[in-house]
Specification:
Number of helices: 13
Largest sheet: none
Shape: elongated
Strand content: under 5%
Number of strands: 0
Order of helices and strands: HHHHHHHHHHHHH
Helix content: over 70%
Radius of gyration: 35 Å
């Protein structure tokens, strides 16, 4: 007989059962319940077999049973090997985060790449790497990221370009309708697939893709104006929770603000450096002119002195 059953029988046979239970009795009953939970949990764990659960989720993804998945550390090691050169110290933490986040997204069984996600990834990388100090390294970093995460860069770029071409000349209302599944083009197909998939997974680049679409149709690019539009797109049109998408858009604009400030500072530094260089060149030119004038004056003096000596 289990300990919880003994406690129950004792309570029935006692007159104290008609009074409020003492703290000891309540605590003992609670502990007994916890013991039952522990026993049932252990029993479930002992009987667990990967992919054998009788649920819709398990049935859908049971074909992935036993698939080997790289760790984040392995993904970043592969990224570093493919890149073949060190990352600028200012960008190392950022790229570590992007590689890890992207890897964990694409290896998730629920992840399905779509044009909105692709546009978000390309837009984010363009924003984050546009001021990378070493010319030409941005492309290498981007290609290395795609390769280490098992993504086809050409396909992602093609999807992003197609979506950007489609949205040209459209309005916010047009995108809203498309996200409801109305009309033609790449977005209605994404919207229908998203609504029909109860296990659809949101990820950060999808939210940034929506922000990029807003930018294309003239929505003011600040957190306050984007928040209600993001709510309209995700919650009202797609029927999905909007809180994470709104949070990601806020983070996007915070990072964008810092990058814009850094870009402004770099331009100011560049302008000051150009002014200093111009001043140095001007000073050098003036020094050379004065030296030439002195040489000319000295030549005149020598010539006059020679003429004077010859006349004597």
């Amino acid at each position: 007989m289990k300990f919880s059953t003994i406690i129950a029988v004792a309570a029935i046979n006692s007159a104290a059962a008609f009074t409020a239970p003492s703290a000891f009795t309540r605590s003992t009953a609670l502990n007994a319940g916890l013991l039952d939970d522990v026993e049932s949990t252990i029993a479930r764990a002992a009987d667990y077999q990967p992919g054998a659960a009788k649920t819709a989720f398990a049935e859908r993804f049971k074909h992935l049973q036993g698939v080997k998945v790289k760790t984040v550390g392995e993904a970043f090691a592969e990224f570093t090997k493919i890149l073949g050169q060190p990352i600028n110290a200012l960008y190392k933490n950022m790229m570590t985060d992007i590689v890890g986040t992207t890897h964990l997204t694409v290896v998730n069984a629920r992840f399905v790449r779509d044009p909105i996600w692709s546009l978000g990834m390309i837009s984010a990388l363009n924003l984050l790497l546009k001021n990378y100090p070493e010319e030409g390294t941005q492309e290498k970093i981007t290609s290395s990221l795609f390769e280490c995460c098992g993504l086809d860069e050409a396909e992602v770029r093609a999807e992003a370009a197609e979506l950007k071409a489609w949205v040209a000349g459209k309005s916010k209302d047009d995108i809203t309708k498309a996200l409801r599944g109305e009309g033609d083009g790449p977005i209605p197909a994404v919207a229908k697939a998203t609504k029909d998939d109860e296990y659809w997974m949101y990820s950060r680049f999808f939210g940034i893709g929506l922000v990029a679409l807003m930018d294309e149709v003239g929505v003011e690019m600040n957190a306050d104006d984007v928040y209600p539009v993001m709510t309209e797109f995700v919650q009202d049109s797609l029927g999905k929770p909007h809180f994470t998408a709104c949070s990601d858009s806020d983070t996007y604009f915070k990072i964008k603000g810092k990058l814009d400030l850094m870009e402004t500072m770099m331009k100011e530094i560049e302008i000051r450096e150009k002014k200093r260089m111009a001043q140095r060149l001007e000073d050098k030119a003036e020094t050379q002119i004065r030296a030439a004038e002195r040489q000319a004056e000295m030549a005149d003096e020598v010539e006059k002195e020679a003429a004077k000596m010859s006349s004597q």
